Structure formats: C-alpha cells, structure tokens
TrEMBL record:
Entry superkingdom: Bacteria
Xref: PANTHER family: PROTEIN ALUMINUM SENSITIVE 3, UPF0014 INNER MEMBRANE PROTEIN YBBM-RELATED
Pfam families: UPF0014
Organismal lineage: Bacteria, Bacillati, Actinomycetota, Actinomycetes, Kitasatosporales
Keywords, ordered alphabetically: Membrane, Transmembrane, Transmembrane helix
Family of the protein in this entry: Belongs to the UPF0014 family.
Designated name of the protein: Putative ABC transport system permease protein
Protein localization: Membrane
Record GO cellular component, one term: plasma membrane
Membrane-spanning ranges: 18-36, 48-65, 71-88, 100-124, 130-150, 200-221, 227-248
Keyword Membrane among UniProt keywords: yes
UniProt-listed InterPro entries: UPF0014_fam
Organism of origin: Streptacidiphilus jiangxiensis
Membrane topology, record value: Multi-pass membrane protein
Length: 265
C-alpha cells in the first residue's frame, strides 16, 4: 500500500524567497512571544528553530541519495534512533553520566519490533523510501513519550520525594515506593497521542494523511495509511511509557534526580 503511493506534483507550499522570509518572521515572533511572556524559553525557541533549518537543509540534500540504498537507509534510521535516545535521556536525567543511555530501551523496544513485523509481513516494503518515513514517525512518537514520561517522573520525584521516604519507612521496596509516586503523572505522557487519535479528521489532519494526499493517492488510501500510523504510534508510545516507569522504579533513568534531594533547600 505504501509502495503504491506515487509521487505527484502537488505542493502544499511554493518554495520561493517569500517562504524564507515568512519562516524568519514566524521564528522571530515565537521568540518575541516567549520573551514577552517571561517563559524563560526564548533562547531555546531560537536555537530549536535554527537547528531545524540546518537539519532539514542537510536532510533535503542527502535523503534523495540515501533512500536508494537499503543499507544507507538503515544507517540513517540508526542515526535517528541514536539522536532520539540522547534527546529523551538527557531530558529525564539530571547531572553528568551515562544514565541517559537507558532511554534506548523504551524507544527501541517499542519501535523496532513493530518495524520488523511490518517488514516481515510485507505491509512495509524493504525500500528506503518506505522505511525511513515510517521509522521516523515511530521513533518520533517514542521520543516524545519517553521525554514526557521521564521529565514528569523526574519532576514528581523532586517534589514528592518525602512520600518516597515515607513509603520506604513503612517497609516498601524502593521500586514500589517510587512507582507509587510517579505512576499517575508519568501515564499522562500518553495524552498527546490519545488526543491526536481521538480528534484525527475532526480537529487535525496529521502529516501522513496530508503527505499521501499530496503524493497523488486517494483520500481512502490516505486515511488507511494515517490509521495504520496512529494505531502503531499508540502501541509504540504505550510500550515506551511502561518501560520508562520500570526504569524509574529501578532507579535507572532518573536516579541522579534523587541524589540531591536531601540537600538543604
């Protein structure tokens, strides 16, 4: 099905100087609003925008060459995975060390079995043009879920570690004590995926749907591809959140967040 989607000549935006000017103005407005609202994220917004420009420009140059080879497509997917692991792990971990590498577990365990099953069943052709976008969507979803789950677990442990100590004093094991505190907040990492799935077609038209339509396929094919993507994302992100919970319970992913909790405030 994915292989049969032919590239069309429809364009969502025309690439011309006005597009570049619009992007600059939008980024400047985003930075200004963040500064005006005293969010403390003005520089982060600017860096994220500039980084996106550089990364997308680089991808635009190499992607047409990479997708011709399954080997290089696999290397590209591995690169996406490595960047996602570091990004999600650093979001959860505080302080130096390599504990962030544990983020490879929730991201990898959710993504690669699903990707392998799709390839083995023939639903996803073993071609770079098919593998890279689907892998990117799945890795991106796992990244978001892992980042949100890890950061929320870290925040809960920082704010409610007294409850963890109380549970330990009552005889609970460290894993059980941590999970009692973080489980509910960490589970909210699934809210974006749930909201997107509930409102698809009514509030949002996700990228896969729009991309397939612009590629010249029928609305039915676009809907089928988007449904497949959304359900796969629910599985991938659920696995990611469950494994983040387990890592937090075992003191792996956010262990260093607890190290300074006994320091005077």
């Amino acid at each position: 099905m994915i292989e049969q989607i032919a590239a069309g000549n429809q364009q969502l935006l025309t690439v011309r100087p006005a597009l570049g000017v619009s992007v600059v103005l939008l980024l400047a407005a985003a930075v200004a609003v963040a500064g005006w609202g005293r969010l403390g994220q003005g520089r982060a917004v600017l860096r994220a925008g500039l980084r996106a420009v550089v990364q997308l420009a680089a991808v635009a140059f190499v992607i047409a060459w990479v997708v011709r080879s399954l080997l290089w497509s696999s290397v590209f997917v591995a690169l996406m995975f490595a960047v996602a692991v570091r990004t999600a792990g650093r979001r959860a971990q505080r302080g130096p060390g390599w504990d962030w590498a544990w983020a490879a577990l929730p991201i990898g365990v959710g993504v690669f079995p699903v990707l392998g099953l799709l390839l083995a069943s023939g639903l996803l052709p073993a071609k770079g043009i098919s593998v890279i976008p689907v892998a990117g969507i799945l890795i991106g979803g796992a990244l978001t879920a892992t980042s949100l789950a890890g950061s929320r677990a870290d925040s809960e442990l920082q704010q409610r570690y007294g409850e963890v100590e109380a549970a330990l004093a009552l005889g609970f094991l460290p894993r059980e004590a941590r999970l009692m505190v973080v489980r509910r907040a960490t589970a909210t990492a699934l809210v974006p995926a749930l909201d997107q799935t509930r409102t698809v077609g009514l509030v949002t038209l996700p990228g896969a749907f729009v991309g397939v339509l612009l590629g010249g396929a029928s609305a039915l094919s676009a809907g089928a591809v988007q449904l497949f993507v959304l359900i796969a994302l629910l599985l991938v992100e659920s696995v990611a959140v469950v494994l983040v919970l387990e890592l937090v319970g075992r003191g792996r992913l956010v262990r260093r967040a607890e190290d300074g909790l006994h320091a005077p405030m």
